[in-house]
C-alpha cells in the first residue's frame, strides 16, 4: 500500500507539523510497498488530487508507470521562440517574449523549479506577484504568458493551461486623442520650420518628416509600417495595407497632395522612402519618434497621454472616418484589427459622437416636415378662457 505525504521545506510554516499535514503547497512524495518492492520518491506534483490519481494508477498496475520526462522550462521556451521566428513575427514582439522568458527563468531558479508541469496556478500566481509593471503592461505580459502555456498545452507538455485561470488586471481605457484640425494645421506648419529651427545642419530626414506625417494621418498606418513603406505598395492612388486572413488584399486611397508629397520627397533608397532597409526597423522607428517628439514641441501640440506620439495620427484617421459616417466595421478593416471589438474598445466615444450627429440630422429633417409644422401651429392656437379651470 502506498501513502502520500508532503515533504515540507524548512521555510514552510507547517514544517514542524511533519508529514501528516498536507494542506500547503510543498511537493508531494509517496512511500510504501508496490509489487513487492519498497518505494519512496517524489511525484513531482503539488496538487493532491493529481497525486492521488497517479498513485491509484500505480496500485492498479502494481508497478510504477513511467511517463515521458516532463518538458523543461528552457526547452519549452527555446521551442516557442523558434516558432515565433518561423511565423515571421516582428523583432519587437519576439523581444517582449524573451523578456518574459528571462523573468520566468529567474523566478524558477529562485524557487527551485525546472520542469514545466511544476508551474501550476499557485506557482504562476506567485510569479505574477513579482511583476513591477503597471496594469496595462501587466495585462499584455499576461497575454504572452497565456500564449506560452497554450503552446505547451497544444504539444501535451502540460495537462492544461494554468495561466488561463489568472485574472487580468483592471485597466482604465485611455481616451483616444485625435488631433483637431487646428492642431494638424500647426503640425504641418511646424514641418516647414523643422529643418531650419531644429535641424539647422540640414539633413534629408528633416525634409522627409512632412511626408511621413501626411502618410500616417491619411492612411492610418502605424509608424513601423509607414517607415518601412516601399514604392511597390502603390497602385496609382491606391496604397496596399495588408492581406486579410481570407486572402483578400486591403487598399486605401490617398489624397493627391499626399501622393505629391511622397513623390517630391527624396527617398533613402530607390525603393524605400524613410529608411535604408539595413538594421533593425525598431531602431529606425525610435529615431523617427524622436523627430516627431521635437516636431510636437515646435508646433506646441500635446503628444497626448503617455508616450503615444505618432499613434495620434492613426487615431485622427479613424475618428475622422467615424464622424464622416463610415461604418465602424469598415474602419476596423482599414486599421487591420483582428476583430471589430478592438475598434469599438478604442473608439466607442466617437461612435456616440456620430450618433449625436445623426440625431441632429433628424431634427433638421423634422424642421421641414409639414405634418409637424401643422401640429405645432395647432398647439399654439389652442387657448383657454381666462379664469376657467378644467
Series of H and E elements = EEEHHHHHHHHEEEHHHHHH
N-C termini distance:
96 Å
Unreliable residue runs: none
Number of domains: 3
Shape: elongated
Q: Give the neighbour order of strands across the main sheet.
A: 1-2-3
Estimate the helix proportion, in percent.
Answer: 40-55%
Please sum up the structure shown:
The protein is mainly alpha-helical. It is built from 14 helices and six strands.
Describe the protein.
With 390 residues, the chain is mostly helical. The protein has 3 domains: 2-61; 73-165, Tyrosine recombinase, N-terminal domain (DNA polymerase, domain 1); 181-359, Intergrase catalytic core (hpI Integrase, Chain A). The protein is 53% helix and 9% strand. It has 14 helices and 6 strands. The strands form 2 sheets. Strands 1-2-3 form a 3-stranded antiparallel beta sheet, with helices on one face. A 3-stranded antiparallel beta sheet has the order 4-5-6, with no helix packed on it. Helix 2 (73-86) runs antiparallel to helix 3 and helix 6 packs antiparallel against helix 7 (204-219). The chain starts with a strand and ends in a 9-residue tail after the last helix.
Properties at a glance:
3 domains, elongated
Please describe the topology of this protein.
Elements: E1 2-6, E2 28-34, E3 37-45, H1 48-61, H2 73-86, H3 91-111, H4 121-129, H5 135-154, H6 181-197, H7 204-219, H8 223-227, E4 234-235, E5 238-243, E6 249-253, H9 256-264, H10 281-299, H11 311-323, H12 328-335, H13 340-367, H14 370-381
Antiparallel strand pairs: 1-2, 2-3, 4-5, 5-6
Helix pairs in contact: 2-3, 6-7, 6-10, 7-11, 11-13, 12-13
Amino acid at each position: 500500500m502506498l501513502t502520500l505525504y508532503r515533504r515540507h521545506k524548512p521555510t514552510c510554516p507547517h514544517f514542524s507539523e511533519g508529514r501528516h499535514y498536507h494542506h500547503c503547497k510543498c511537493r508531494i512524495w509517496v512511500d510504501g510497498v508496490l509489487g513487492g518492492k519498497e518505494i519512496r520518491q517524489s511525484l513531482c506534483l503539488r496538487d493532491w488530487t493529481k497525486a492521488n490519481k497517479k498513485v491509484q494508477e500505480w496500485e492498479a498496475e502494481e508497478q510504477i508507470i513511467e511517463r515521458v520526462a516532463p518538458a523543461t522550462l528552457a526547452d519549452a521556451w527555446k521551442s516557442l521562440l523558434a516558432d515565433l521566428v518561423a511565423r515571421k513575427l516582428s523583432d519587437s514582439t519576439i523581444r517582449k517574449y524573451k523578456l518574459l522568458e528571462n523573468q520566468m527563468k529567474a523566478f524558477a531558479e529562485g524557487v527551485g523549479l525546472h520542469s514545466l508541469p511544476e508551474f501550476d496556478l499557485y506557482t504562476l500566481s506567485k510569479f505574477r506577484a513579482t511583476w513591477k509593471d503597471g496594469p496595462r503592461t501587466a495585462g499584455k505580459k499576461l497575454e504572452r504568458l497565456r500564449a506560452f502555456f497554450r503552446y505547451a498545452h497544444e504539444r501535451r507538455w502540460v495537462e492544461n493551461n494554468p495561466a488561463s485561470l489568472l485574472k487580468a488586471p483592471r485597466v482604465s481605457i485611455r481616451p483616444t486623442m485625435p488631433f483637431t484640425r487646428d492642431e494638424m494645421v500647426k503640425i504641418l506648419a511646424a514641418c516647414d520650420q523643422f529643418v531650419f529651427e531644429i535641424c539647422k545642419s540640414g539633413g534629408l530626414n528633416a525634409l522627409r518628416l512632412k511626408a511621413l506625417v501626411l502618410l500616417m494621418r491619411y492612411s492610418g498606418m502605424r509608424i513601423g509600417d509607414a517607415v518601412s513603406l516601399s514604392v511597390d505598395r502603390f497602385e496609382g492612388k491606391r496604397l496596399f495595407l495588408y492581406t486579410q486572413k481570407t486572402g483578400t488584399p486591403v487598399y486605401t486611397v490617398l489624397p493627391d497632395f499626399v501622393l505629391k508629397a511622397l513623390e517630391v520627397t527624396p527617398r533613402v533608397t530607390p525603393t524605400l522612402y524613410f529608411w535604408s532597409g539595413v538594421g533593425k526597423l525598431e531602431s529606425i522607428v525610435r529615431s523617427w519618434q524622436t523627430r516627431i517628439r521635437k516636431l510636437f514641441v515646435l508646433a506646441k501640440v500635446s503628444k497626448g497621454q503617455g508616450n503615444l506620439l505618432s499613434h495620434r495620427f492613426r487615431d485622427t484617421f479613424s475618428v475622422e472616418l467615424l464622424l464622416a459616417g463610415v461604418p465602424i466595421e469598415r474602419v476596423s478593416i482599414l486599421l487591420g484589427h483582428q476583430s471589430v471589438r478592438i475598434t469599438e474598445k478604442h473608439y466607442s466615444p466617437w461612435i456616440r459622437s456620430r450618433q449625436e450627429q445623426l440625431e441632429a440630422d433628424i431634427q433638421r429633417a423634422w424642421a421641414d416636415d409639414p405634418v409637424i409644422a401643422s401640429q405645432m401651429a395647432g398647439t399654439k392656437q389652442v387657448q383657454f378662457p381666462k379664469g376657467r379651470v378644467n
